[in-house]
Recover the amino acids of this structure.
């Protein structure tokens, strides 16, 4: 479920090819009252709750329209785009796994390995200055 405002925002964002940048820490609180404060975090949350760029649209005249089934290739294309933005619903994960060949599944699992974190002093806590320096490297 999402509000009409977020649906419209998501649609405008994907059609306009906007590259939003968070002015803060990419962890802004997005709720009904503060959703307009950061477009980058709002779009990230849209992907996080499962909105996909080429997702199915509900048909407006239900009984006369027959919904077309997507081919496995189309499903894989749409789900891989959602994966790039970090959003997977349980159903999306299920469809993705069923559409993959064993070789593709192994490659997907290898891509899912967390990256090696390179920190000069892993035991030292971050200060504001060290955090800003890590963003510029």
């Amino acid at each position: 479920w999402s509000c009409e405002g977020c649906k419209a925002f998501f649609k405008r964002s994907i059609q306009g090819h906007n590259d939003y940048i968070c002015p803060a820490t990419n962890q802004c609180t997005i709720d009904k009252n503060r959703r307009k404060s950061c477009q980058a975090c709002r779009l990230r949350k849209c992907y996080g709750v499962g909105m996909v760029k080429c997702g199915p649209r509900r048909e407006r005249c239900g009984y006369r329209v027959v919904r077309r089934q997507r081919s496995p290739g189309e499903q894989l294309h749409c789900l891989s785009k959602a994966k790039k933005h970090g959003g997977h619903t349980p159903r999306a994960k299920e469809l993705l796994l069923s559409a993959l060949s064993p070789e593709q599944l192994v490659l997907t699992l290898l891509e899912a390995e967390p990256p090696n974190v390179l920190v000069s002093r892993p035991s030292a806590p971050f200060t504001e200055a060290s955090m800003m320096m890590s963003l510029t490297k």
Q: What stands out?
A: The domain at 1-51 is CATH 3.30.50.10 (Erythroid Transcription Factor GATA-1; Chain A). The chain has a mean pLDDT of 71. The CA atoms of residues 122 and 130 lie 12 Å apart.
